[in-house]
Amino acid sequence: MGRLEGRVALVTGGGTGIGRAIAERFASEGARVAICGRREEKLKETADAIDGKVTYFTLDMRDLDAVERSISAVADEHGGLHVLVNNAGISGPTPYEEVTHEQWRDILTTNLDGAYFAARAALRRMKDHDHGRIINIGTIGAHTPFPGWTAYCASKAALVGVTKCLAMEVAARGITVNSILPGWVKSDMSDAGVRSIAAAMGKSVEEAMPAILADVPLGRMSDADEVAAMAVHLASEDGRGMTGSSVVISNGAYMN
Ligand SMILES: NC(=O)c1ccc[n+]([C@@H]2O[C@H](COP(=O)([O-])OP(=O)(O)OC[C@H]3O[C@@H](n4cnc5c(N)ncnc54)[C@H](OP(=O)(O)O)[C@@H]3O)[C@@H](O)[C@H]2O)c1
Fold first, then answer.
1. In sequence order, what DSSP letters do the residues of 88-107 get, joined into one string?
2. CA of 173 to the centre of ligand 1 (A)
3. Which of 49, 111, 141, 198 is 20 to 30 A from 154 via CA?
4. Pair 3, 29: CB distance under 8 Å
5. φ/ψ (deg, to 5) at 108
6. In Å, how far are 186, 199, 251 from 194, measured between CA atoms?
7. What would the pLDDT profile of 149-193 be if each residue is shown by its tens digit?
8. Share of the chain above pLDDT 90, in %
9. Contacts of 18 (CB under 8 A, 6+ apart)
């Protein structure tokens, strides 16, 4: 029997990268999984690959009314909701001399506002003492600076604050709220990040890679599945004693 048998889970940004890996792991552990994101073709590709066990719908996390409506609809469709993984996110450089109000708001609204109101909608539909779990995907940039990526780091640092406050607010209901803070994880987002750092160094990706990994004691990037394994732990009975925590998976790049 899977560790998430009988659970209903929603993974935002579940069509690609880390979200897709979490959806795959959750489904293989017996959960009924819904995924959402803006690109329907990515969601369909992921749902098809997971053999019809996963449902999907398009959603823009910046549309906060739609976020609340859709999460309620998922709970209606599946007869409840146990696990929300706030994984959808965007990143990118925002140096202070160049960042526009629009870029700043875009990152904060997607990564922070969307996640918070998704959590609120999910909490309204989770039953007390019935395996309720919120898992927020942050970054080590919440604790250690990525120079020139202020909007991204600020959004994820605030998400750690959300994690701790909500964890306290809902503890009496037997619901847990935790964050996972990854370092480099292979995905479209990290590919773009590496390209941008390499460009800023005036180097090719191959030339820049040793310098990028020099800050990572284990000298590697994680696979998305490593984050997914921790998400299963937090979502399952095994994680019942963890709340308000931030679990770092960074190959040693940040040690808390
Ligand atoms: N890869 C890393 O090194 C790394 C490290 C630390 C933390 N993270 C975090 O991990 C999470 C997943 O990132 P990833 O690495 O797997 O990259 P990714 O493949 O780019 O995943 C991001 C996902 O978020 C969705 N998304 C973005 N904006 C959205 C919006 N407005 N509404 C709905 N969905 C939206 C994207 O789908 P659509 O574009 O189709 O909407 C995509 O599926 C992010 O929160 C990221 O900050 C990644």
1. --------TTT--HHHHHHH
2. 30
3. 198
4. yes
5. -65, -40
6. 10, 8, 17
7. 999 999 999 999 999 999 999 999 999 999 999 999 999 999 999
8. 98
9. 87, 137, 182, 185, 187, 224, 227, 228
Number of Cβ within 10 Å of residue 175's Cβ equals: 23
Ligand 1 neighbourhood includes 90 CB (under 6 angstroms) = yes
Q: From the CB of 251, is ligand 1 less than 6 Å away?
A: no
Q: How far apart are CA 191 and CA 208, in angstroms?
A: 12
Torsion of CA 247, 150, 145, 188, to 10 degrees: 60
Nearest to 177 by CA among 237, 224, 235, 107: 235
Q: Tell me if 43 sits within 8 A of 56, measured CB to CB.
A: yes
Tell me, using a 6 A CB cutoff, whether residue 59 lines ligand 1.
yes
